[in-house]
Amino acid sequence: MNEKEFGQWIKSLRAPHITRVAMAKKYECHPNTLKSYENSGRLPDVDYLLALSNETGYDFKELTKQRVIARFSSNNILDLKTVLQVCEGSTDYSAPHLPPLHHDWLAEGDAMEPTVKEGARVVYDSSDKDLADGQMYLLRINETQCIRRIQITIEGGINLICDNTNYPVQSLPKDKASMLDVIGRVTSVTNNF
Fold it and tell me: Which residues of the chain have pLDDT under 70?
């Protein structure tokens, strides 16, 4: 099962029990996030799998196992035998060295306040560079790293949005969007008090 097939599978599990909108409302996430899990090949976070298990009664361990299989077998990082051994808790395998997917970065400036304050610890996934509407990404713009929220326009262009309204929206037309240097999707932010 690849990542897109996994999305279709979890949709088929959810749909008989609860609508996407009701699921999003109940578990406090955006319906477009669930849509991207089910239709775009974006793999869901483990907390969503727990919510899905809760709603459907489907085994959480099996959901997690299938997610891992979809993640690693679709890009040939690990062979299926090794993936299955890891999922079953076996320690009798030799896994290849994998590059870290999650990295830390300390936020600079106030462009994303109040969501991301200066000096906040930002964790990003360097393997997730496919832009999704409404998500935050660590980007490189003019040799400077910064976080921006992404908005996909109807024409296929991209708006780079700061949460701090003192900063203007930066728009990239569709023909320039591929020039954007995406470092990774922001997965968590820890602000200092």
Answer: 73-102, 193
Domain boundaries of the chain, sorted by first residue? 3-87, 102-190
Distance CA 130, CA 168 (A): 23
DSSP E strands in the chain: the ranges are 102-106, 121-125, 136-141, 144-152, 158-161, 170-172, 181-190
Q: How far is CA 87 from the centre of its chain?
A: 21
Q: What is the CA radius of gyration of the chain?
A: 18
CATH hierarchy code of domain 102-190: 2.10.109.10
CA within 13 Å, CB half, 193:
0
State the Cα torsion 172-33-144-166 to the nearest 10°.
70
36-66 b/e (C-beta count within 10 Å ≥ 16 → b)? bbbeebbbbeeebbebbbebbebeeeebebb
- pLDDT tens-digit readout, 39-76: 888 889 888 999 999 998 888 888 888 888 787 766 56
3-class DSSP state of 113: coil
| CATH class for the domain made up of 3-87 | mainly alpha
Q: Helix, strand or coil for residue 123? A: strand
Tokens of 11: 């949709």
Q: Which residues pair with 188 in a beta bridge?
A: 123
48, 7 Cβ separation under 8 angstroms: no
0.85 cut: is pTM over it? no
